[in-house]
Specification:
The complex is a heterodimer of chains A (260) and B (308). Chain A is globular, with a radius of gyration of 25 Å. By secondary structure, chain A is of the alpha+beta class. In chain A, a hairpin with a 4-residue loop joins strand 11 and strand 12. Chain B is mainly alpha-helical. Chain B has one domain. Chain B has eleven helices and five strands. In chain B, a hairpin with a 4-residue loop joins strand 1 and strand 2. The chains are: A alpha+beta (260), B mainly alpha (308). Strand 5 of chain A pairs antiparallel with strand 5 of chain B.
Chain lengths: 260, 308
């Protein structure tokens, strides 16, 4: 036992030492579409992220088993999670917890379970898995994340997952060859508009080897964008037009269906 | 066919929404009401957030009441003076309603308020209407002539000052209760996303003694104006009116209303009231049950801004 501990430390130091300065591996990635447009018939889409691990002379020849974790995080927003309780015989919202600048969409994909990729210490530090991703909350006077089994945090993650907005799939990344990989990024119909950051982390022997980033954006185009912008920026005109539209529809109906 | 709603931010099936609009339009044409109290819960049921539903339905009701008001206007079944006085209260009430709506939304209690007011209002009005319709049917079964109106009841309303003559309705009435009624209906309408016709018409008939010849047309004018104002205010303050959703509802609604009106003419008045009472009561009870039983999901998540 006593002899084995220093040995492990040496192996770890070697692994880290080999990876960091030499940049032995390089990740080259791309998503199938960098600009997803939300059109009137938009009802969800799936992007494909593909890439390869480039090895060079500095790469230790013995290192072959790679692990990949892909984190897709959408535009950030403040959210509030409320809990209902029974008061005077009815169920009403009582307690609430504020989540500050958390991703509106969050997806974590990997080629095998996170705990098999790295040690608990590494998975926590690298924010691997929905349980380890930092979700800042206002807890009393503090801003902090809480333990994964906190009722508000777990309810928040569960509800977002039900809507397909948070997801964690530990078998989504597939290696086509030992260095060529792909994964799908499913985007549900109610996906928020904005910029999506994709972070790809390469692990080998339980340690982070290298990482790279890419991004794509989801935009409303044409009529959808026009309506949404008008509603937000020119509320008065938008209201007038909507009211006018209502009157016109009513008037048309009274003409079309006129009985006398 | 799926269509993406730009404000509600979710895709919906156009035919489902169109069918809902037509079904509610049918009911509203049949009973001569706006149908908001059915439309708003239905929209919430298909996944549209209560706030967007309430705001968008107000423009839908504006459309259906405008087509109704036009045909009543042609038949000279609208009392302009009475409508103007009602509107004095209605405008203020609507503004207060939208303000309350915004405030409660920020406190996270909007859904509760909407549900509670549905329970209280719909159960009460529905039960009263059902009871009234039932009694009328029993009276005709027994062959007893309907009771004549007891003159002199509600004397206190007719004793109020600031009396005014409403020529077309042929009534002489204080403006105070009229303004108050307008205020309450405007407030309720803006908060709950309903036109309020199903409450306003009984109040006008039984409390203000407005003759049946002008009551529906005049109430439609109040509904029309309060709902146009509500649409404007919801659009300006909360940015929640989904014009695409509203348009689909309107088209379905005005079409359904025409068929509903024809069906309504074939049913006897007291049966109609009984049916309407049952319908309103059913919606009220549904909301009550939802409040009373333990929900499957105790938690809700809502965005509070800061997106970007």
């Amino acid at each position: 036992m006593i002899a084995r501990a220093p040995l492990a430390a040496v192996v770890l130091a070697l692994a880290l030492g080999a990876a960091v300065p030499a940049r032995a591996e390089r990740l080259i990635v791309s998503v199938s579409n960098h600009r997803v447009t939300v059109t009137p018939n938009y009802s969800g889409e799936e992007l494909v992220l593909f890439g390869s691990v480039e090895r060079d002379a500095a790469t230790p020849a013995t290192r072959t088993g790679y692990d990949l974790v892909v984190t897709v995080s959408g535009p950030r927003a403040d959210m509030v999670t409320r809990r209902k309780e029974r008061r005077l015989g009815i169920w009403i919202n009582t307690d609430s917890r504020q989540f500050l600048q958390v991703p509106a969409y969050l997806a974590l994909f990997s080629n095998r379970p996170f705990d098999a990729i790295a040690s608990p210490e590494v998975t926590r530090r690298q924010q691997l898995g929905l349980n380890n991703v930092l979700l800042t909350q206002r807890v009393g006077p503090d801003y902090a994340d809480v333990v994964p089994n906190d009722p508000f945090r777990s309810a928040f993650v569960r509800l977002r997952t039900q809507h397909g907005l948070y997801r964690e799939e530990t078998s989504a990344v597939t290696f086509l060859t030992p260095t060529l990989f792909r994964t799908g990024i499913p985007l549900p119909g109610e996906v928020p508009i904005g910029t999506y950051d994709v972070e790809i982390k390469l692990f080998a022997d339980g340690a982070l080897v290298t990482k790279t980033e890419t991004a794509f954006e989801i935009v409303k185009v044409g009529f959808e964008q026009f309506v949404a912008n008008a509603a937000r920026n020119n509320g008065f005109v938008y209201g007038l037009v909507t009211a006018f539209m209502a009157l016109m529809t009513g008037w048309m109906a009274s003409i079309v269906f006129r009985k006398d | 066919m799926q269509l993406y709603l730009p404000i509600a931010d979710l895709p919906v099936n156009v035919f489902l929404i169109l069918a809902m609009g037509a079904a509610v339009g049918f009911v509203s044409g049949m009973f001569g009401i706006g149908g908001g109290f059915l439309m708003t819960p239905l929209l919430i049921f298909v996944g549209i957030s209560p706030a967007v539903a309430v705001a968008s339905v107000s423009s839908h009701i504006a459309a259906s009441s405008f087509s109704g008001a036009l045909s009543y206007w042609r038949r000279r079944a609208i009392d302009p003076a009475l409508a103007m006085v009602l509107l004095c209260g209605g405008t203020v009430g609507t503004a207060l309603g939208v303000w309350t709506f915004t405030l409660l939304r920020s406190l996270g209690q909007l859904d509760l308020l909407i549900a509670l007011s549905y329970v209280i209002l719909l159960s009460t009005v529905g039960a009263l209407m059902f009871w009234e319709g039932l009694r009328a049917i029993m009276r005709t079964r027994r062959g007893v002539a309907p009771l004549a109106r007891r003159s002199g009841s509600h004397g206190w309303i007719h004793g109020l000052p600031l009396k005014m003559r409403f020529k077309r309705s042929k009534i002489y009435l204080s403006v105070i209760p009229v303004v108050v009624v307008g205020l309450i209906i405007g407030f309720i309408g803006a908060v709950m996303g309903i036109g309020g016709g199903f409450i306003l018409i009984p109040i006008m008939i039984y409390l203000l003694r407005v003759p049946t010849s002008t009551v529906i047309g005049t109430s439609m004018v109040l509904t029309l104006v309060t709902m146009v104002i509500a649409t404007m205010l919801h659009a300006v303050t909360n940015h929640l009116v989904d014009a695409v959703l509203a348009l689909i509802l309107m088209v379905g609604g005005v079409t359904g209303a025409q068929f509903g009106a024809r069906a309504g003419q074939k049913i006897r008045g007291e049966h109609l009231r009984l049916l309407l009472g049952l319908l309103i009561l059913a919606v009220g009870i549904r909301f009550a049950v939802e409040l009373g039983i333990r929900p499957d999901e105790l938690f809700t998540v809502r965005e509070t801004g800061g997106a970007g």
